[in-house]
Amino acid sequence: xNIYNRAETWYYDHALPHLEKDPLKKIGSAIAITxxxxxxxxxxxxACFGPLCDIPGPFxxxxxxxxxxxxxxxRGTSYRRMKAxxxxxxxxxxxxxxxxxxxxxxxxxxILVKDDLPKGPNYGFLQGSGNQTLFxxxxxxxxxxxxxxxxxxxxxxxxxxxxxxMDSCTEAFINRIDKDIENTRDSSNGFGTVDIWMLLxxxxxxxxxxxxxxxxxxxxxxxxxxxxxxxxxxxxxAPKLVLYPFLGKLVKxxxxxxxxxxxxxxxxxxxxxxxxxxxxxxxxQILIDTQLASHQEDRLTVDxxxxxxxxxxxxxxETTSNTxxxxxxxxxxxxxxxxxxQEEIDNVPMENGRTLHTHDQLKHLPYLNAVIxxxxxxxxxxxxxxxxxxxSDLILGGKIFIPKNTVVICSLNHAQRNPSYWPNPEExxxxxxxxxxxxxxxxxxxxxxxxxxxxxxxxxxxLQEMRITLxxxxxxxxxxxxxxxxxxxxxxxxxxxxxxEKNSFKVLIKQxxx
Length: 514
Ligand code: HEM
Prior knowledge:
Layout: H1 3-15, H2 23-49, H3 68-71, H4 78-89, E1 92-96, E2 99-102, H5 105-114, H6 121-125, H7 140-150, H8 156-184, E3 192-195, H9 196-212, H10 226-243, H11 246-254, H12 260-276, H13 283-289, H14 302-316, H15 318-333, H16 335-346, H17 359-362, H18 366-378, E4 386-389, E5 394-396, E6 400-402, E7 407-410, H19 412-415, H20 459-476, E8 477-481, H21 483-488, E9 492-494, E10 498-500, E11 506-511
Parallel strand pairs: 2-7
Antiparallel strand pairs: 1-2, 3-11, 4-7, 5-6, 8-11, 9-10
Residues 134-135, 147, 311-312, 315-316, 319-320, 323, 381-382, 386, 448-450, 454, 456-458, 461-462 line the site of protoporphyrin IX containing FE.
Keywords: Heme, Iron, Metal-binding, Monooxygenase, Oxidoreductase
Binding site for heme: 456
């Protein structure tokens, strides 16, 4: 007798006699019990014989999903659980009946690059306000078209013209650090105390302001421009949209995340540029210039321009500043590597009349790039993994059947710490990236900017900014770690991006004697 027949017999023997004799109620109850029995039996069937039944994972994952609100406790720590699951079950793990996580380098490449699967349902939740953007769209055709239109703003050649904006923001950043040193200087040793995490965040916002919003927000100086303040408030809300998708509908209903001042500001800016024909070689200009495109579908509306620049602010600020912050933290934990980097940068003479190195001088410095790569390997900004969904049945690695509509999470954090790919994976070893390294870095297991059609459009922008910022800090200042701050920085959380839990990291700092 199968499970359905048993449930039915039990129902007629035990439950039915106690119910009222109303025939309609009887029919309703019978339908309900049939439906429940069907659901339970298909769950059991799928768990035991379904296409994903052989994929290892915790027992409960065969039957149901534990809501993220429970697994992400304390908040921002679910990436640790994901890593622990991989450590226990291997490079493929069943997370719930229709979700798997993979960390095998070849499988990740297959999903992101070869099969180029569409983004998973979490990205849909991020469209809370109804705006599809380059980042959150799940529609391949929309994405291809939008990416083609926006790409010129991030072309390597165009980035040269953005360097002057980055430089002037970096100068303001240095002035602020000098002021903070002055105000907090300990007369016995000359060191001042600076919250470098917070200032790096402000610098990154100013750089995006200057390149994508037409002017710096001056966050480094005043820290109170309404645009980044409103958007960072929205960002704090965004992870909740993934945890509690119904909130997305509320946001849509009440348009909670749109500050009216914001639309006014952006529209005025765009109209001023259009009417006065005032050009400025920045990202915003490239988006505005799409108005001149011959094909209607290549012209971005004002709403679309606003949505994309807001996206750049979200995707391009904390990602970059936190990575630079993590690099500094790693270097302060390994001061011999800090000294080595300082020596490399000191050997690059400043060009006449300049106070900052040019990006051309920095972009090929082996140790600087090695420090950045190693930082991103250990502190990958998408530590929770990248979510995709199968749009047809596929055979992963030529041997594992994955049915259509399976959510696949590419676990970058595990791939980038897997001892089969990286000797001494938990150690910060920039040396592994140098030409003379005995074991070459496993580039196929390194995805800090993702890969495939949905890779990071801002990769070169971010690298340029990080090289300039890190080289400037290391060549100008002497650093000393504050032990309690280093200890606190071990608590790393994944919200929209990876961050230290306190969102602050203070260092002792003074100008170098050169
Ligand atoms: C260290 C800094 C950065 C890191 C590690 C990083 C990482 C990533 C990753 C992993 C993705 C793929 C996300 C996914 O598939 O869910 C992505 C996408 C994206 N990033 Fe970045 N990012 C950085 C900086 C930037 C900057 C500076 C910008 C813009 C100014 C930017 C704009 C974007 C955009 C627009 C996308 C979506 C691209 C698409 O789907 O076509 N990112 N980034």
